[in-house]
Amino acid sequence: MKSYSFRLADGSEWNITASKKAENWVDKMASIMQLKQHYTNNRPRLIFTRMGEVSIPKLTLDGWRLQDLKMLRFGYHNQIPDVICELGEDRDKVKEFLKMWFVLFPICRRIQNTGGLPLHAALIEKDGKGMLILAPGGTGKSTCSRRIPSPWKAHSDDMALVVKNSDDQYLAHPYPTWSDYFWQRSKGIWNVERPVKVSAIFFLERSDKDKVVPVQKVEAAIKINQSASEICRVDWMDLEAKEQREMKIRLFNNACELAKSVPAFKLQASLTGKFWEKIADAVSH
Fold first, then answer.
1. Which of 112, 145, 168 is the C-terminal boundary of a domain?
2. Where are the alpha helices (DSSP H) in the chain?
């Protein structure tokens, strides 16, 4: 089987492998995420197959649990770190790339065990400092990302994976804007293995004037949890109530810890002002 490696700053690593029938699909996903072919022994595997190649229902007799998201089915096991990912047919482009987005969920489950979480956020950077701009879809994250001038860098405009390393520092990995592929707006690539230290979090609001206002930690924790829940809500489908409750509690606890460790602000941004200067001022103090 062809294999790609996916490493995160918390020390976790996946081997992403594909059967012959799933190989082209995995190659395309790996290209967009800039993953390199590599295999490391004793790392958990995301094993991609096409429906019918491996019968997950039969595997349930051996302790595997099936999560059916219709276009893609996951097989999880309490004693085995590998995850089986069974792909449906790629009948249209939207479903093809929507399944690539769903691959996020096993990865998110693993990073949540060590304090991480996914965020509906743009990731920008200046001088090695990473800033997360959180907002629901369609409210300006992409616009902000496009407008920032050099030497600022925009690493992603829709999603980021935040992980905590062994020194209890939070780092963010950019993640693809899969909707660009859904609607054929662009064909970007994202270096998902390149982390940036998180220096501040900004909750975006549209405004006629640019302004940054500090946010209390309790409010920040609630907003961070809401942002992460927007992403994880699909993963909570087809789960028993107890497991869903446990995952929600873990996510909320991680949001609280992130809010305690990283300063948060409300970012009021206009369409013509230099909002990035307000961000720089906030981070420098």
1. 112
2. 23-32, 56-59, 93-102, 104-112, 141-147, 178-182, 217-232, 241-261, 275-284
